[in-house]
């Protein structure tokens, strides 16, 4: 008995404690180096966007993530430049706001390669060079052929989205991303100026500028009238040559002329706003000043200006909201779900090692799984706090994936504590990390803490129906994964025998029971919600039907077993097939684009639904079709060694081995 | 833990001689767990195809065809559609509807499940602590299946549409239509003759003393679409709305309509009006729910001029509309509130402020109906338990703009469902039963492990 195995309890506990402590230290706030901009402080300035108050850091991350496909950072060099360094999203947002004017192509951020374009037709439309494996472009690069893009966009804008071909979809997406950028650069988004009096609205700098300059711009003697007169005067000759009469312009010509006026008006209006702001809009002036300081590289002054701005203007915001904003910025930086993912992967590796090196490794895996689980739990609770929805775990597809991962981890840990043989650890690691990966992709749409449609805006039903039904999905998946493990271990390895066989078989069965209870209760609670909110207990809506399929499928497994139609192996096969049913209900039904729950349509998801279903089907077929005597685990009697295979002799069946 | 839950019929059969007799064997077969499993599998197929069918049919068509029917014809085209979403099958692939297969409908499977369940408990009836959970949960299941039956047979859904400032005392039923012939020659009152939609069947002639004409149904479409006509020669069944936009009424199979989100079925009928008691034609009219303003959120672009005919010097209008359910009370919409989250188009709240007037009860008060806060009107005079099965509930369902003024209108979903309480009870029974059953099993399992 070595030292390690004798003290593995304590060593495992120590490993867990050290990991937690390391996280705590890493999460501590750090002050910036002298002479550097305090991006953390800038990032925690509150702003309102998409209906909720959030830190500028979130605005920056979400915008950059949507534009760039999946990143929350950017590089300051060109594609292929090895010396380019990586910067956080918040710095990108600062640079977006540091242009000479607030026009789209002005400013330092126009040169960063952040817009993701993968469609080769769009790339050739814009005459860009191909950047394999990177596929990100700057506005400067797109600039020279930008007209072609807007032309294409005008053509497809009114089209039924379902009728657009892939090229048109990608054009539409790209223009949407440019629009997000334009909203930021023109300072129309987000609304970062708090209401000056309680009950007022948050306003954006663009709004405030428009409001303070309006008296001098509009009206018969205003700036607009003067600019229009100037332009008419300048173009007098041209109009005459082309036989155009400004008094009789068509709608299109009127629009074109108006946009020319606006282009000329903008810089003069901006100049005017700069002049009027100090007196009429001190908050906006303070914000613009700190941007100016950043642009001038006076970082110490910038840091002081940020602190001043927050003390003076953000203090009007209710304290609870400010606390949330601070917590959210921390949450962004710490990225707890990413940390959990890393930990779950380590748990998986340790569990694999535990089958070679034994108990100490298993204990270490349990310790880390607990750390991951605690972090995961804390992250879920933090999201609840940020949304101010106690006990509401699921508000969109992203959060359902995160929650399913958490439940799967909990079930896996419970199995581990019951059986103590490493099965639960693997279960935790595989299911939790898979669902966190899925969550990552679901989160690429933007704000994962977004506000909810009116009909969904009820904490009670979100906390009961949605939580329980998601729990049902999670349990059904976990049963399916254990079933898959049963089949693969049995067919490919000699390990599925004795205690291990018993463990896996009872875990599948037990979790199917659990899944039946939860999916049934969750589905019926949904029915009751529907009855409460639109008077129809059961509407045969695709999502409802999907949930019903899960319930029936679980009931079918149980009844088939009670009828003696299937035994352990059959239950495992059916449980794996249950994953297809659950995938259909969770994601598939949303693809049909009909029904009350049609909130989560995503292009490209169909592929993953089909691919994962084929994998599940393949595993189930292996389990169902490979004759039991060809399973590695049952090819020989348990007393004999795994190799060489004796010809003839007693061949075990799972039931024989189990008994 | 497996053996403890085996529900096998074998031991029970041995104990009861009745089950050895031929009728007894039939009962035993009906009670078999294998039948349960088969029925579950068939139900899953039905629910799945019933989901796919919603890709191109209205929800009520699907519910009536698949779930509230004894048998259904499942066209292969459904799977082609599925393939178009998931496997990239070209959108042009089309298989005729006659290619398909018959399948048992919801009534059939539901009643078989019910019979199977009841038979199983008759054959294997045994009260013990161990089986208590199963008994409770199956009792709940029976109640749930019966509840769906009651809902399917007796629930009525309707909509009440009110614009701001309007007072309305009727609701438009969702699944029944009626044909009206209106005589407006008296300026003070309209004389309306209502023909129930159930009489409008192809080839049938309707005669009635109150009707100024006989009505022959030439064509009947249970669902139709309204498509915009952009230029070109006039189409069959073309109508020009009051703002001058051209539309054609087509059967749903012909193409997607103007409003893809429109999921209520739009009945359309072609009726030939005949001089009473003769075969002499007065005119042929296409009447459609598409011409009923509440159907199209009262948008001006879908307002069509009334269809008139003249007979014996008198002018009448003919219209198809949802069956009207008149109430003893009326609702007056004072204001509709539509709040959005700041800087977004995401709705935060829909709320209708209404005044309820019920002369018979001397009731006159203001109230708000909003999301997740419906108005329930139970009729207390139907006996002490009347509230259990009687009464209606008004839910905030949708709204519409009311141009040219900025005023808006509201749409309430009005539901009368005598079985509304059954799912609540059955849910408690089933969930409770499962908890008891699985709890007993889990406890036994843990105890056995503790012994090991």
Characteristic terms for this protein:
heterodimer, A: 659 residues, mainly alpha, two-stranded antiparallel sheet, 26 helices, 66% helix, 3% strand, elongated, disordered C terminus, B: 452 residues, alpha+beta, 10-stranded antiparallel β-sheet, 4-stranded antiparallel β-sheet, 10 helices, disordered N terminus
Can you put this structure into words, describing what you see?
The complex is a heterodimer of chains A (659) and B (452). The C terminus of chain A is likely disordered. Chain A is built from 26 helices and six strands. Chain A is elongated and about 95 Å long. With 659 residues, chain A is mainly alpha-helical. A two-stranded antiparallel ribbon of chain A has the order 1-2. Chain A has a two-stranded antiparallel sheet with strand order 3-4. A two-stranded antiparallel sheet of chain A has the order 5-6. In chain A, α16 runs antiparallel to α18. Chain B is of the alpha+beta class. Chain B contains ten helices and 19 strands. In chain B, strands 3, 4, 5, 13, 14, 15, 16, 17, 18 and 19 form a ten-stranded antiparallel beta sheet that branches. In chain B, strands 6-7-11-12 form a four-stranded antiparallel beta sheet, with no helix packed on it. In chain B, a hairpin with a 5-residue loop joins β11 and β12. In chain B, α4 packs antiparallel against α5, α7 packs antiparallel against α8 and α8 runs antiparallel to α10. The longest helix of chain B has 30 residues. The radius of gyration of chain B is 28 Å and the shape is globular. Chain B starts with a helix and ends with a helix. The N terminus of chain B is likely disordered. Classes of the chains: A mainly alpha (659), B alpha+beta (452). The interface between A and B is large, with 72 and 69 residues.
């Amino acid at each position: 008995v070595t030292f390690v195995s004798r003290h593995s309890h304590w060593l495992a506990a120590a490993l867990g404690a050290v990991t937690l402590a390391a996280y705590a230290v890493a999460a501590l706030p750090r002050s910036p180096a002298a002479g550097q901009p305090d991006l953390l402080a800038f990032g925690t300035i509150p702003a309102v966007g998409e209906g909720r108050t959030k830190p500028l850091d979130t605005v920056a991350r979400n915008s950059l993530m949507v534009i760039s496909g999946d990143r929350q950072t950017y590089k300051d060099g060109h594609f292929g430049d090895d010396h380019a360094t990586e910067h956080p999203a918040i710095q990108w947002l600062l640079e977006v706001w540091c242009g000479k004017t607030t026009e789209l192509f002005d400013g330092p951020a126009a040169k960063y390669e952040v817009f993701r374009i993968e469609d080769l037709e769009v790339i050739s439309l814009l005459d860009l060079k191909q950047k394999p494996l990177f596929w990100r472009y700057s506005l400067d690069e797109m600039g020279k052929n930008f007209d072609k893009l807007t032309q294409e966009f005008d053509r497809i804008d009114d089209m039924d989205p379902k009728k657009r071909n892939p090229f048109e979809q990608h054009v539409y997406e790209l223009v949407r991303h440019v629009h997000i950028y334009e909203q930021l650069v023109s300072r129309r988004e987000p609304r970062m100026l708090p209401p000056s009096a309680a009950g007022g609205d948050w306003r954006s700098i663009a709004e405030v500028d428009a409001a303070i300059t309006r008296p001098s711009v509009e009206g018969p003697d205003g700036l607009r009238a003067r600019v229009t007169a100037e332009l008419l005067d300048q173009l007098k000759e041209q109009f005459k040559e082309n036989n155009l009469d400004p008094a009789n312009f068509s709608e299109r010509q009127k629009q074109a002329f108006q946009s020319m006026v606006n282009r000329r008006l903008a810089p003069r209006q901006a100049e005017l706003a700069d002049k009027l702001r100090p007196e009429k809009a001190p908050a906006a002036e303070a914000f613009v000043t700190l941007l100016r300081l950043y642009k001038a590289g006076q970082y110490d002054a910038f840091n002081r200006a940020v602190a001043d701005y927050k003390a003076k203007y953000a203090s009007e915001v209710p304290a609870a909201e400010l606390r949330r904003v601070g917590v959210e910025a921390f949450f962004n930086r710490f990225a707890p779900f990413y940390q959990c993912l890393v930990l779950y992967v380590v748990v998986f590796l340790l569990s694999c090692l535990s089958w070679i090196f034994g108990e100490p490794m298993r204990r270490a895996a349990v310790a880390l799984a607990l750390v991951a689980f605690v972090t995961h739990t804390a992250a879920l609770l933090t999201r609840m706090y940020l949304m101010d929805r106690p006990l509401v775990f699921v508000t969109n597809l992203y959060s359902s994936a995160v929650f399913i991962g958490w439940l799967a981890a909990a079930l896996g840990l419970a199995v581990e504590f019951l059986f103590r043989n490493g099965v639960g650890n693997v279960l935790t690691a595989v299911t939790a990390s898979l669902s966190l990966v899925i969550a990552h992709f679901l989160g690429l749409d933007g704000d994962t803490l977004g506000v909810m449609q009116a009909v969904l805006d009820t904490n009670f039903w979100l906390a009961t129906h949605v939580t329980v039904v998601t729990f049902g999905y999670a349990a059904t998946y976990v049963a399916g994964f254990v079933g898959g493990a049963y089949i693969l271990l049995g067919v490919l390895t000699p390990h599925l025998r004795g205690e291990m066989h018993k463990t896996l078989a009872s875990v599948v069965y037990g979790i199917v029971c659990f899944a039946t209870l939860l999916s049934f209760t969750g589905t019926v609670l949904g029915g009751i919600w529907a009855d409460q909110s639109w008077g129809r207990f059961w509407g045969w809506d695709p999502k409802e039907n999907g949930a019903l399929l899960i319930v029936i499928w679980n009931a079918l497994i149980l009844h088939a077993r009670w009828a003696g139609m299937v035994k352990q192996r059959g239950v495992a096969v059916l449980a794996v097939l249950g994953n297809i049913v659950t995938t259909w209900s969770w994601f598939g039904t949303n693809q049909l684009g009909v029904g009350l729950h049609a909130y989560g349509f995503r292009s490209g998801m169909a592929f993953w639904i089909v691919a994962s279903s084929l994998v599940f089907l393949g595993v189930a077929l292996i389990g169902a079709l490979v004759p039991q005597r060809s399973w590695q685990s049952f090819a020989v009697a348990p007393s004999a060694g795994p190799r060489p295979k004796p010809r003839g002799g007693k061949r075990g069946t799972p039931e024989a081995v189990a008994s | 833990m497996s053996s403890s839950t085996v529900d096998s019929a074998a031991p029970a059969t041995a104990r009861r001689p009745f089950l050895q007799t031929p009728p007894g064997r039939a009962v035993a077969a009906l009670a078999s767990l294998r039948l349960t499993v088969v029925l579950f599998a068939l139900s899953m197929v039905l629910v799945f195809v019933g989901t796919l069918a919603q890709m191109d049919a209205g929800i009520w068509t699907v519910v009536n065809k698949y779930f509230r029917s004894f048998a259904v014809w499942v066209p292969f085209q459904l799977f082609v559609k599925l393939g178009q979403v998931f496997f990239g099958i070209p959108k042009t692939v089309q298989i005729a509807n006659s290619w398909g297969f018959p399948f048992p409908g919801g009534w059939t499977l539901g009643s078989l499940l019910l019979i199977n369940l009841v038979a199983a408990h008759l054959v294997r009836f045994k009260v013990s602590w161990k089986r208590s959970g199963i008994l409770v949960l199956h009792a709940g299941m029976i109640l749930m299946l019966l509840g769906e039956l009651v809902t399917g047979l007796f629930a009525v859904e309707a909509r009440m549409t009110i614009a701001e400032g309007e007072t309305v005392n009727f609701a438009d039923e969702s699944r029944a239509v009626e044909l009206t012939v209106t005589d407006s020659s008296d300026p003070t009152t309209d004389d309306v003759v209502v023909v129930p939609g159930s009489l409008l069947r192809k080839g049938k002639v309707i005669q009635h003393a109150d009707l100024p004409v006989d009505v022959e149904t030439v064509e009947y479409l249970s669902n139709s679409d309204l498509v915009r006509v952009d230029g070109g020669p006039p189409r069959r069944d073309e109508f020009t709305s009051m703002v001058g936009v051209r539309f054609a009424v087509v059967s749903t199979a012909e193409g997607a309509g103007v409003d893809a989100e429109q999921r209520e079925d739009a009945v359309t009928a072609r009726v030939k009006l005949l001089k009473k008691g003769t075969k002499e034609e007065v005119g042929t009219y296409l009447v459609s729910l598409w011409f009923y303003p509440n159907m199209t959120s009262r948008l001006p672009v879908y307002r069509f001029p009334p269809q008139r005919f003249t007979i014996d010097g008198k002018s009448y209008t003919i219209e198809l509309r949802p069956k009207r359910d008149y109430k003893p009370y009326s609702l007056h919409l004072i204001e509709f509130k539509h709040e959005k989250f700041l800087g977004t188009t995401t709705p935060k709240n829909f709320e209708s402020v209404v005044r309820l007037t019920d002369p018979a009860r001397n009731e006159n008060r203001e109230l708000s109906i909003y999301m997740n806060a419906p108005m329930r009107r139970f009729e207390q005079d139907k006996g002490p338990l009347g509230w259990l099965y009687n009464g209606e509930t008004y839910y905030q369902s949708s709204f519409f703009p009311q141009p040219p003024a900025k005023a808006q209108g509201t749409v309430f979903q009005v539901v009368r469902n005598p079985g509304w309480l059954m799912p609540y009870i059955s849910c408690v029974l089933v969930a409770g039963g499962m908890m008891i059953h699985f709890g007993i099993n889990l406890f036994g399992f843990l105890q056995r492990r503790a012994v090991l």
